[in-house]
Fold each of these.
Amino acid sequence: MNYLLETLLVSCIILVLLFFFLRGRALKKSFKYESNSSTNVDSPQSENEFLKNQLLKLQEAFKNEQQLISFQRTEFLKKEELLDDQLKDLEEKLSIEIDNRKKVLSQKKSSEVRLGHIAETLAPFLDQFDFDPENCNFLGKPIDYISFSDDEITFIEIKSGKSQLNTKQRHIRDLVKNKTVAWKEIRIQ
């Protein structure tokens, strides 16, 4: 912003100096022409007065430009302050919205977990459950059920929605698939 104002100011000064230079050359040519055509003694004084008047006009114009630049700078600073305030308001609103979305997401996940627990409890009584509920024992963690039928023992994990097996459940699944299941009898006396 300051660069723009400085460039504008320098350009104005260059234009003024160029005007004086060109005007001075024109006056010199005019003065030489007048002094050759007539012998007027007052010509140098009138030229000096003219130059003084022009200098005063330029000084006045320069002051006006400085005032205009100062006014514009003040306006730019006010606009910058207003934009800063608007930015702070938007950042605060964004922060509030992020917090609200986090709460909603947390509530959604919590309700999904509760729904999953309900589904685990009711699973033996649903049509998709292929085992006899009387032969199933609920464990809860890390595996939901174990079914003891006449010809096999089955580990059962109930999942709802898009939920996946956790690391411990995947490890148990892999052990069962690799047939690394053992029997151990412990007697206490």
Amino acid sequence: MSQTANRPPRTPWAKQHPSLVLYGGLPLSLVLWAAFTLGIYFVFHAALGIQTTTPVAHAAPRTRHARVNLNIIINQPGMQQNWPAYAPNKLVVPANSLVTVTIRNYDLGDTPLLKGSPFNTVQGVVGGVAYADGHTYAALAPEKVAHTFTVPQLHINVPVPGDTTTGKPYVEVSFTFRTGAAGSYYFQCFDPCGTGSNGFEGPMVTKGYMVGTLIVQG
């Protein structure tokens, strides 16, 4: 008879090593439980259309846009008669912004620019154009200029016509330019609209008339 017939029955491995079953199966159970939980989480989020991450919005910086009004007047009380003048004589605008200037020229009539003068062209403004009584222009004929609005340090120049097309007692000119850093500049007329043999005396060199201050504030 075979000796195997008398061998006692073998004890199952799990019963021989109960601690290994306990501590070895526990991590596997935890992994399976975590995977199941995450699966349920993402299924519900997908079904409900919920984003699992929050998008970061980067809003474009908003450019400030300021508007200022300026008149060119003549024969005002308390001022020299027949001398044109900017009113007001000081403009304050924000830095790093768009600035739209509207000029009403009440000093009608033209004082031709000198031959070869560069001040009959619009320079340094948005789009390279200005608007006179609603009409776009990039330059004026030298003999059709009454004044200029010129900021030499900012390379801005806008010739102002002296002939109205609306029947109003003024010509309205508008244009837009961009400011940079804060600073103080001057604006001036470079058309010979003053006194003297060359037209560049009197109001052209007298404080409070055809020279003004542009303050760019930060």
Amino acid sequence: MSASTWPPERPGTGVPYRSSAGAQVDAAVLVPLLVAGEPAEPHLVLTRRRSDLRRHAGEISFPGGRRDADDRSLQDTALREAEEEIGLPREGVTLIGELPAVSTFVTNYLIHPFLATVPAGVAWRLSPTEVDEVLELPLAALRAGRTRTRLERRGISFETDAYVVEEHLIWGATARIIELLLARLDEDGAPTAA
């Protein structure tokens, strides 16, 4: 791969940047779908991370994070993180499946996405230390917003797949999860919210 694609390579080596930590760290995200609007259409719930965070500042992501020792399963991790980050009560979540795990290239996480439906009209309660905003983006707008874009991170310029909806740029692992979701929906048909 060249330096203009993702993952970026170490200059002159052809070897992608990787964490030196070795084994991947398990993490989980909740991929919440809801039906909203007039006419009613499926939306994906995402978060915009705070701009002052040390990692992934200002990026758009799904609610989720590393597995804690107290989590019984990765599914439990996704539910706990969604509750902590956006105030989504577990009893309001209907799990409907799991998407294939996605690796991060630099931070060395193996992210397990859990697909769920949630009711429209949830009063989001944002974690003041992690989340700036909850986004409810129509699936149709995400599908139409698929693109390639050039980004620069940590002094490395690269081209990557992304989704652009209005002013929202979604890339990286989150974009790869959305791509998996849209492919699954193409196969199975769109789910409806509980």
